[in-house]
Write a structure and sequence with these properties.
homotetramer, Tetracycline Repressor, domain 2, 2 domains, DNA-binding
DNA sequence: AGATAAACGAGACGGTACGTCACGTCTTAGG
DNA sequence: CCTAAGACGTGACGTACCGTCTCGTTTATCT
């Protein structure tokens, strides 16, 4: 007579309050002190969370930064149906997040973390691949099929052209993105790929 | 008109041995541990130099990294007279330095430092402006005058197109530069600016 | 009348191992290098304790020295009932500690600390007052009442006469105390105060 | 035909200005920071003297302190001819120096130095022996011969009784000497040695 | 008068120590 | 079982001093 144990874990589950407070504190500290001066101790004090809680749930401080940046992205919206708008819609969340408040500093922190730390870098690149690069490739491939743009171009290179300036501006030039960045990038690309 | 007495300072001069050892140690540490784990203590031990000596001559550890990277650059050479070669010659020192030994890691460190630290960033951007961007602008302007390329283009944007991939590859993708990167970039740009 | 909830603190308690190792290291360093060359770094290395732990529990290095000396004192014993022995018993712990091993050097260190540092001085004087001077005054007053010594003398001055040579010998002359110092001092005093 | 070598050294002699400024700075620093925080660097800056000059003329910082204290003593004067006054005259310079301005702190510093440092201790004890103890012994021996005091007493112990309280008060109790300390000590001693 | 040599101020150098902060691990108590 | 609190050993921070050294200047003696 075997008991199907149903094996539910005992005790309390992970505290969502704690997680949110830690990510919020991470953003604040990134904005105020930057990546290199970020410290687990300060985040823990700021968030009134114990260090143990932080170390239990994140493998490294870098991945916390990446998560802190990504959890603040607005959801992707669908404004239009024409090619330029479909591409711009995919870039828009990043553009918006970077312009809201101190989003700029938070993203610079996350990017630095991704450059420094192997694990954080993987987390970052995976997210970018799944949420930005793959959808962009899909759209580009589709409109190429519809002969809106010519078909003999390098997909990866095209995606790089679209997103590259985001990283270099944020990271190296500490410059804000210009207004309507997403649309401009999209229409510039489509023009240069005109058949 | 008599010359001022030129009043030489008393006491010992800055030790060149010390300076070189510190920069060399900085490179080693950057390669082995990366920017965030770089520490003045380790550099000082590695270089058998006292911390005071480091703090005496560099305002921040970031500027040390920038100097450590830049003092390693090979001198600019002049291989050819045709437009592509003239542009490639300006990019070549960076390309070579990045490919020699661990140059890649050193430059990533310096770039990270420039992103994190205000002063290091200024030092970096000034050097880039004086030694890469300004000469590139000169050459581009000149060959435009000679009608080799068309005249209605944005100089800054053209320079960005040439150098941008260096930074993003080094920093974000940790990818090596391809062979003949400089020449390829130069010829690609000139083709796209053909009159 | 309900009792307050007694609110016990969370987290680990102070490590007794650590405290003992630090005091022991302090004694060793005092013996080997003396007060002025005593350093928190050396003690910390010697005791395999972190500097933070030292700074957490002692307000200044001087108070550590005082504690290091006092925690080594043997307990007061009660050998006899006649006046000379009762007085000698009170001085005996100091005499013994000073003669055991390097007690001399430890006490010189503690005394120097007490001279240099306000807080260490207070700690020292308080201990002396409570454990040496006050008991001595009690005994002297009592035997004066019993007319064993005359009654018109200055209590404080008598106590100074008993203890003074301890300090000056230890500190200034670096000379050891003679054999049976306590008894001799006691009997000399009582003789001079004979009615 | 022997040559008297005369061998006079070339070059400038020791600068008295420099010596005075260094001793004065030492006194200031002793008063302000005490023995343990005294530093050659601070003295050198304060006195506008180079460290080399300090190290050239003093074997250790402790001997500087002793010299700084002793060079401040007023000259011994001769007020009277009766035994009490003759003894008091010998103690008076110390008493005066200790009461003038911050003499107290300077002497505490010098005494601490003498306790810590072998060489400084020797310098101190030699000076005391030559200038205080030896003359006191002479006077006491002489008045004993004249039967003003009895002849069977320990000279050293008598001298200790006279000077002991100076050291213990200055060093351990940080207490000032009472008015007419020298005369009182002298008359008290003579009374207790009355034949 | 010119050369020689000592003493000086300034201060760079390799070190050690300061007192503080952060790391990642751990122990305790409470929910 | 998760959490807050926080002590622990390790080690880096940026500053101050240690004692030694190297400069360039000044000054007194010797030739």
């Amino acid at each position: 007579m075997t008991k199907a144990p149903a094996k539910r874990r005992q005790g309390p589950r992970r505290s969502e309050d704690s997680r949110a407070a830690i990510l919020e504190a991470t953003r604040k500290e990134l904005v105020e002190n930057g990546w290199r001066k970020l410290s687990v101790d300060k985040i823990s004090r700021h968030a009134k969370a114990s260090k143990q809680t932080i170390y239990r749930w994140w493998p490294a401080i870098g991945t916390m930064c990446v998560e802190a940046a990504l959890t603040q992205l607005p959801p992707r919206s669908t404004h239009g149906r024409d090619p330029v708008e479909r591409i711009a819609d995919l870039l828009q969340p990043l553009e918006s997040a970077m312009k809201a408040g101190s989003g700029h500093a938070v993203f610079r922190g996350a990017l630095m973390a991704a450059c420094d730390d192997k694990e954080a870098g993987d987390a970052w690149r995976n997210w970018i691949k799944d949420n930005i690069r793959a959808p962009l490739r899909l759209v580009l491939a589709e409109i190429a099929t519809k002969k809106i743009i010519r078909r003999d171009f390098d997909l990866d290179e095209a995606v790089d052209t679209l997103t590259g300036p985001i990283w270099s501006r944020v990271l190296i030039f500490r410059a804000p993105l210009p207004d309507n960045f997403s649309s401009h990038q999209a229409s510039k690309l489509l023009k240069s790929l005109a058949p």
